[in-house]
Specification:
Elements lengths: L1 H12 L7 H31 L4 E4 L8 E5 L8 E7 L10 E3 L4 E4 L13 E10 L5 E12 L7 E2 L3 E7 L9 E6 L11 E9 L5 E8 L2 E8 L8 E10 L7 E11 L7 E6 L3 E3 L5 E9 L11 E6 L6 E5 L6 E5 L10 E10 L5 E6 L7 E5 L12 E10 L6 E2 L3 E7 L7 E4 L2 E2 L9 E5 L7 E3 L5 E4 L14 E10 L6 E11 L7 E2 L3 E5 L5 E8 L10 E6 L6 E4 L2 E2 L1 E6 L6 E10 L5 E11 L7 H8 L4 H25 L30
Parallel strand pairs: 1-7, 9-15, 17-25, 27-34, 36-43
Antiparallel strand pairs: 2-5, 3-6, 4-5, 6-7, 8-10, 10-13, 11-14, 12-13, 14-15, 16-18, 18-21, 19-22, 20-21, 22-25, 23-24, 26-29, 28-32, 30-33, 31-32, 33-34, 35-37, 37-41, 38-40, 38-42, 39-41, 42-43
């Protein structure tokens, strides 16, 4: 360029000067403008050459050999320069990957890994051209080298094995399981994108079809049709994730284990019955039948466990329970049955499971769409009564000996107390309830704690055995209770019970008496009073209130005020002296029946003692002289006893001859009493 510029300038000024001054100025300005344009254009060219160069790229994982040339950086210079590279791939991570020689050739020293380049996908470097004559930087360029990804990684599943458990009642079209996968290759290229595919399903059944739908890096497994535990308890699905690499396609697989949970899609069916099918009348808690059922659902599950219902048992005489081990229905009698009322009982028994029933059947398989199904979902609200299996059973009632029955079982009689012994009270009637057993029976007295009644063994007539007393402690609320038994001659003999309540009407057979017949009163100048009370075991009008009357010489000394009542006041006049007083009092009931009671009254000076009881107790205490006399008397009595004992011990002692023979007793012909003397 400098040569061109110099050449143009010299050529311009080499012309002759036969031109006008104005023409010269015009040519000069034209030259200047042309020169500026040329220089400006030259500057743009240098700028492009300085900063814009062809881009380089390195493919990862090239096997070598190393180093190998990547390319050349072109720079037009007339003087010697040396080249340098700085930045990523040279003296920055990843280091020692690139180098440049003095001719501008860039070489690759070792292989790169796109996935492990610390996130660096483009190496950014600085190129410098240095003038060797003065070591000044002549040119500085920016260089970018792109790392190219190759398909060296297969898609990888998050798990090698996925497991899930689903209920067989799950609706088709619902998601079963979602798998996740990733690819370390560049996701913006085909090397890093992949598709999911179901490669195999084990076992293959005609009731279900599995498929997978992809959402970027995840795939969700669905199914069409009906899951059925009885056809397959577990499905094993092999899913493949395969990338879209152009040169080579890589893939990996994951195993999906789908466990099917049994639900109630099979109804229990009756298969038989065992047991006597009969019960003796009046028996309860007796097992009469066992009903067997079969169920294809898993044993022990709620879908397998049977639940029974009884129909036709209006009196609720039966119950049915499920045997937890065998699943049998155990029919038991819980209330007594009477042969005379019914000889057999017809029952209807249905069976279902503990959880609701559902069903699912494939009507038509539709390609790439949900299938047409005939399905009854659980808890759909549809009536299941017509679905359940039902069995009819007949329970026969056996006749046994029934106990006699009192008619009525309880009798009440009302009589006056003190009626004559032998008076008939009532006659009990007993009925034999047996239809096939004809029995006779006899009456026996049961509870009769006072022994007041007798019963005729053949007729059941009850009579008095003693005088009936309403005031007896065995009578409660004017009523006496007795029981009777009727015993038949059956085998075994049975007994019926009847109860007799005897209600006793009161008579005036008791007189009023004083509740307390001793009274203490204080000596006073004014009249003093004390309360006296009478009682009568009879009821009104044969008892209180009473009439009181003092007998004897009591005028101006004692009086009763008032004379009529239950509790009255005994009034002592001021003329009565202290001491012990006794007199009689007549007490009459409302019917005039009376008794004469002795009343003892003690009058004392209450100023000396608080009351008469204390004073009398003090007077009764023994003085010291009296105590001494009693002690001497006791000692004298003991001395007399000792003397009598000594005198009796001085009786004459006789020798007893001893026979030398064989130890026979010697006859003494005496009958004297023995002695304690030795």
């Amino acid at each position: 360029m400098h040569k061109i510029i110099n050449f143009t300038f010299c050529h311009l000024f080499a012309v002759d000067f036969r031109i006008s001054k104005w023409e010269f100025k015009t040519l000069f300005f034209f030259f200047i403008a042309w020169t500026v344009c040329v220089l400006a254009d030259s500057g743009r060219i240098r700028q492009k050459r300085a900063w814009i160069i062809d881009s380089f790229s390195i493919e990862e994982e090239i096997p070598g050999p190393y180093p190998y040339p990547l390319g050349k950086i072109e720079l037009d210079r007339s003087y010697l320069v040396k080249f340098q590279l700085h930045g990523q791939g040279v003296d920055e991570e990843p280091k020692k990957v690139l180098e440049i020689d003095n001719k501008g050739y860039v070489s690759v020293l070792k292989k790169l890994d796109y996935e492990n380049s610390q996130g660096i996908k483009i190496l950014k470097l600085k190129f410098e051209a240095i003038n060797e004559s003065n070591n000044a930087v002549d040119t500085r360029l920016g260089v970018e080298i792109k790392i190219l990804d190759i398909n060296d990684h297969a898609p990888k599943f998050q798990k090698s094995v996925y497991q899930v458990t689903v209920d067989e009642s799950l609706d088709q079209g619902k998601d079963v399981l979602t798998v996740l996968a990733s690819d370390e290759d560049d996701s913006s290229t085909n090397n890093g994108t992949f598709d999911f595919t179901i490669k195999s399903i084990t076992p293959k059944t005609d009731n279900v079809e599995f498929y997978i739908q992809q959402q970027k890096d995840s795939g969700t497994v669905y199914f069409r049709g009906c899951l059925d535990y009885e056809k397959a308890q577990k499905y094993t699905i092999l899913v493949e994730a395969k990338d879209k690499g152009e040169k080579i396609q890589l893939s990996s697989t994951s195993t999906l284990e789908i466990n099917i949970l049994d639900n109630n899609n099979n109804l229990p069916e009756f298969s038989g019955k065992t047991g006597p099918g009969k019960v003796k009348e009046r028996e309860t808690g007796v097992e009469v039948l066992r009903l067997q059922v079969t169920d294809k659902d898993i044993r022990g599950s709620k879908a397998w466990k049977a639940k029974y219902t009884i129909y036709g048992d209006k009196k609720e005489q039966f119950k049915i329970e499920t045997d937890p081990v065998t699943n049998e229905g155990i029919l038991t009698v819980v209330k007594q049955l009477d042969y005379e009322e019914q000889t057999y009982q017809n029952l209807s028994i249905s069976v279902q499971n503990e959880i609701p029933y559902f069903s699912c059947k494939v009507k038509k398989q539709v390609k790439n769409a949900l299938w047409e199904l005939d399905k009854k979902p659980q808890n759909s609200g549809m009536s299941d009564a017509n679905l359940y299996n039902t069995i009819l059973v007949t329970i026969y009632v056996e006749d046994v000996n029934d106990p006699p029955v009192f008619i009525p079982p309880v009798k009440n009689v009302s009589v006056m107390e003190n009626i004559a012994v032998g008076t008939s009270l009532t006659t009990f009637t007993v009925k034999d309830m047996d239809g096939s057993h004809i029995n006779t029976f006899k009456f026996v007295k049961g509870e009769d704690i006072a022994g007041w009644i007798t019963v005729d063994a053949n007729t059941g007539q009850v009579s008095t055995n003693k005088i009936l007393d309403r005031e007896s402690p065995f009578v409660i609320n004017n009523t006496y209770k007795a029981t009777l038994y009727a015993v038949d001659d059956g085998f075994p003999p049975l007994t019926g019970t009847g109860t007799l309540f005897i209600h006793l009407n009161d008579e005036n057979d008791n007189v009023p008496v004083l509740e307390v017949n001793t009274v203490n009163m204080c000596l006073d100048t004014e009249p003093t009073i004390a309360s006296i009370t009478a009682v009568d075991l009879d009821l009104p009008p044969y008892s209180s209130p009473f009439y009181y009357e003092l007998l004897g010489n009591v005028k101006d000394k004692w009086r009763v005020d008032p004379v009529y009542g239950t509790t009255v006041s005994l009034v002592k006049e001021h003329s009565v002296y202290s001491g012990h007083h006794q007199f009689q009092i007549k007490i009459s009931d409302q019917q005039g029946l009376y008794s004469i009671q002795n009343l003892s009254v003690t009058v004392c000076d209450c100023s000396i003692a608080p009351n008469c009881h204390v004073k009398m107790a003090r007077k009764a205490q023994m003085g010291p002289v009296a105590a001494l006399m009693v002690t001497l008397a006791v000692l004298f009595f003991i001395a007399l006893c000792l003397m009598a004992l000594l005198i009796s011990c001085k009786a004459e002692k006789k020798m007893i001859e001893i026979d030398e023979g064989f130890g026979h007793l010697i006859k003494t012909n005496t009958e004297n009493p023995g002695t304690d003397c030795l």
